[in-house]
Specification:
The protein is α/β, with parallel strands linked by helices and 299 residues long. The protein folds into 2 domains: 121 residues, Rossmann fold (3-Layer(aba) Sandwich), CATH 3.40.50; 150 residues, Rossmann fold (3-Layer(aba) Sandwich). 36% of the residues lie in helices and 14% in strands. It contains 12 helices and 10 strands. The protein has a 6-stranded parallel β-sheet, sandwiched between helices. It has a 4-stranded parallel β-sheet with strand order 1-2-3-4, covered by helices on one side. Strand 3, helix 6 and strand 4 form a beta-alpha-beta unit. Helix 3 packs across helix 4. The two termini are 31 Å apart. About 3% of the residues have low confidence.
Length: 299
């Protein structure tokens, strides 16, 4: 995604080399050495950095390796993208560290007074493959889910049993984590690449999206369904008020009646317009950040 954006925007990907990562682990309790390593990294790999440049991090990496020391030492604007559900304490800590924090859950953004950017599909808009744009009815009833357990095992298992009663063909892969206690064929111990996940999503007829408790922001499963023109089975009721909702596209567990599920599976589905899809693209994300930064510089 970042390499794609670099073709169209003033963006480049910067990573810490393995040697510095190794040293940061070796001296993880020696703060002054980690600060020294961070400054060495900045001088060597970011020699032309200016105060007008922006360093963008996501929540998955912000506290790892040398990143805390680099973020503290770097002399430019620092932006954070929250791509996963996080608690309020984490957000407040990050607000004290970063000039701008962006979240994808609108309710939490309002509560914590941070900027909102919709969840975005990590494939460039100009390189998207909307491989299944036909409007034909679902023929195979293939349903696909992949994700970490995160305490969702019972809900996912119950859904799989329900879908079997409608003769659906399931490809469910629950990745074990610390919450995994059961023994089940739904668990998958083999990691797959995101590219393989996209292949699986294209082959499915329905993408299954089970959010964690209280989550209202969209997962990548939702965006895969939109970009590949697949039907979506989800427990995220916030989609009811979205610009992508239709009863033929989205079946909401706990809201929709299972009596209409066969009708949902057999209904024709038209692709969404490019104008709608663009709002959930990395192109939209980077343009918003650049516009926000330019507006800030003019204040």
């Amino acid at each position: 995604m970042i390499d794609y954006l670099a073709n169209y925007y003033p963006v480049r990907r910067v990573t810490t080399p393995a040697s510095l990562n190794w040293l940061s682990r070796k001296f993880k309790r020696v703060n002054f050495i980690k600060r020294l390593l961070a400054n060495i990294f900045i001088r060597r790999y970011l020699p032309k950095l200016t105060s007008e440049d922006i360093a963008i991090y996501n929540d998955s990496h912000v506290l790892k390796r040398l990143n805390p020391e680099i973020i503290e030492a770097i002399k430019c604007r620092r932006f954070l993208l929250l791509r996963n559900p996080v608690d309020d304490d984490f957000v407040q800590k990050m607000k004290a560290t970063f000039e701008s924090v962006y979240g994808f859950e609108e309710i939490n953004c309002q509560k914590n007074n941070i900027a909102y950017i919709p969840q975005f599909f990590p494939v460039g808009f100009n390189e998207r493959d909307v491989g299944t744009v036909s409007c034909n009815p679902t023929l195979h009833r293939r349903c696909y889910f992949i994700g970490k357990d995160k305490g969702r095992f019972a809900a996912i298992t119950a859904l799989s049993e329900k879908l079997h009663t409608f003769d659906c063909e399931l490809k469910f892969q629950i990745v074990r984590d610390s919450s995994s206690k059961e023994i089940s064929q739904l668990y998958c111990d083999k990691n797959i690449t995101y590219e393989q996940n996209l292949v699986n999503a294209r082959r499915a007829d329905c993408i299954v999206d089970i959010t964690q408790d209280s989550q209202t922001g969209w997962t990548l499963r939702v965006l895969e369904a939109l970009y590949f023109n697949k039907k979506l089975i989800t427990n995220n009721i916030s989609l009811l008020d979205s610009n992508i909702y239709s009863k033929n596209r989205v079946f909401i567990i706990g809201y929709d009646s299972w009596d209409r599920f066969n009708e949902f599976l057999d209904a024709k589905l038209k692709p969404l317009s490019d104008d709608i899809l663009y709002q959930y693209s990395p192109d939209y994300m980077i343009e918003k950040i650049i516009d926000d930064a330019n507006e800030y510089n003019q204040l």
